[in-house]
Each structure stands twice: as structure tokens, then as C-alpha cells.
Amino acid sequence: MTKLFGTNGIRGVVNEDMNCNLALGIGMAWGTLLKRNNSRPKVAIGTDARLSNHMLKNAISAGLMATGCDVVDVGVVPTPTLQYTVKEKDFDSGVIITSSHNPPEFNGIKGVASDGTEFSKDVEDEIEKIYFAENFDLASWKNVGLLSKWDGANDLYINGILNAVNVDLIKNKKFHVVIDCGNGAGCDVAPVLLKKLGCKITKLYCEPDGTFPGHNSEPLPENLLARVN
To answer: Which of these is catalytic: 39, 100, 120, 140?
Structure first.
């Protein structure tokens, strides 16, 4: 059997090995597994800033809803934000559409358990078994899942961090922070958090852009240099 899940979810080149058919099937397999413990699972889904984010998000959401899962779209969020949201808002599971530091032509699907941690190897293996066997537990027409949106995930995450640190102590330090968000999903979180901590901020590439115009996304020393067109 072909292995889909790697060390950090499923990743591939968009519209080659990472395509809508794969995302749809994984959604149906995922939902089938969730329904073994809950007749109406609730799943949070978010994405990074890659250009294929909506395409894959919609495909896997359709698969989940086909099995009777309700899906809540939390928008463009860093992976830890999605994980924290799943845990704090009592979701049965979470999906983040991201390929982390991979080049812009890649994207991926990463699963989050109800406690906010990454899927275990056993869960990933079971999803793969259902996917390849096409043994999907599809809902009747009147029991398909519903889609809704919630835009509070990033604020929830930022406030969670603020509640865990000594904000006044950090403000008194009057830090000046240079932050490079690499045009990724952190653009909507890290600068906001630092501002609330009283930091002076010098921002580099803090506009979400799935083409990564500032520099290559791989975290290597040579990629700390700006890209010159």
C-alpha cells in the first residue's frame, strides 16, 4: 500500500500528487474514522497563505461534510493557532492546509487531534486504510455536514499567549524586535502579538503572499537574503 502520511502530514506538488481528488478522499476517510466515536463530529479547518489553499480546503471540507461532519472554516492561521483552537473550543478534530517551509508549488494536509496535538501514527494509518479501501461511511442526504466560518482563531491564540506571560514585565523592557514573517500565515499573528507586548517592531515580509516574493521559504542561511528580481 502506498504511504501518504509522512513525518508531518501529507505533502506534494499541487495538481500533481497533491490534488482535489486526494483531498476529497482523505476528507471522506477522515470523517468516516471520526464518526466511529461521534455521530456528528465538528472539525476546524484552516490554511496557510499558499495560492492553492482554498482549492484544497474546499475539497477536504466536502469530503468531511459528505460523511456528516460539520466543518468550521477559521481562515488563514498559523498551525499552532489551529491546534490551540481545536483544544480550547472542543473540536473533535482539526485540519490545517499547509506545506510549512516547502516551495510555493507544494501544499499539504495535516491532522490535529481533539487535544490539539498532531495525529498519532495509528490514526494516520487508519485513515490511509479507509482511503485506499474506499470504505467510506457517507451520510444520507438529510444528514450531510454543514459549513460555517469563525474569524476569532487568531485572537484566541494571541490572548492565550498573553495570558501565559508577564505582559507588564515584557512591556517594561521596551524591546525592539525585527521580525521576518516570510509572507506566511504568521503575518496576521506575530506583529499583533508583539505590539500588544509593547515592542517596537521592524517588519520584513509581513504581508501574506503564497508566492513568497521576499525570499525562499526554506529556513536556510542563504535564504535570509532578500530576493532581487
So the answer is: 100
